[in-house]
Design goal:
globular, single chain, 6-stranded mixed β-sheet, alpha+beta, 9 strands, 231 residues
Length: 231
């Protein structure tokens, strides 16, 4: 019986893989920009019939593990959105899950203050069992070196800055993992706990700029369409 179930799982996986190859690549589309939408869509995409069957049989798979990580990321982004969305009542523009002009990368969140300060919060939902700290110039989560995981945010900040013609403040919102010392600054990126995200963003947004907030908001909405991912 077990052999038959494994064969069925393999057949389902091969069929889904064939269908995926025939499907045209997913492109960003305009919409309301629901926080975590693209990560949740990625999780659904990874959970093929074969993966779901393997999971039901207690068989771990790489795609299943990646789907779980995507689901956790989506939940973290939704939690951050709930924390910072109240800033809209103070005149802020808050956008979620936005696509860059090229490639498949997305912006978790984009915040523009009434004074024209542009902030790029990026949610990281890492295990609460391990601290985030800096050791010998490297960023560690427990004993794992996660330094390179900040490259994406730095690239996104440069891209947004070039597109909007204004400096962009990158910010890591850490949902889960405790931060040594309460918060850190690493390679120019401030890393703060999720429960302080709204306060930190509000404080950063008080700086005066020469940019028009409404114009920046309109340009950002046009250049970075919402990115719900695969439907």
């Amino acid at each position: 019986m077990t052999s038959l179930l494994i064969l069925a799982a393999l057949a389902a996986w091969l069929y889904h893989r064939h269908q995926q190859r025939r499907r045209p690549p997913t492109r960003p589309v305009r919409g309301n920009g629901e926080a975590g939408a693209s990560a949740a869509a990625r999780a659904r995409e990874l959970r093929t019939p074969g993966v779901r069957l393997a999971t039901s049989l207690g068989i771990p798979t790489q795609r299943g593990a990646l789907a779980d990580r995507s689901d956790a990321g989506a939940e973290g982004e939704r939690r951050t959105a709930a924390r910072i969305d109240p800033l809209r009542q103070e005149g802020w523009t808050i956008l979620h899950d936005r696509a860059l002009p090229r490639g498949r990368a997305n912006l978790d969140h984009l915040a523009i203050s009434p004074t024209g300060v542009v902030i790029l919060p990026d949610t990281k939902r890492w295990s609460a069992r391990y601290r985030v700290r800096v050791v010998n110039g490297r960023l560690l989560h427990g004993g794992l070196d996660v330094t390179t995981r900040l490259k994406g945010l730095l690239h996104e900040a440069r891209t947004v800055s070039a597109a909007l013609g204004t400096p962009v403040v990158p910010l890591i919102v850490m949902d889960g993992a405790p931060i040594e010392g309460g918060e850190l600054t690493f390679h120019g990126i401030r890393i703060v706990p999720a429960d302080r995200a709204c306060t930190v963003i509000r404080d950063l947004g008080r700086n005066a700029t020469t940019k028009s907030s409404p114009q920046l908001a309109a340009r950002a909405a046009r250049l970075f369409p919402s990115y719900p991912g695969a439907a």
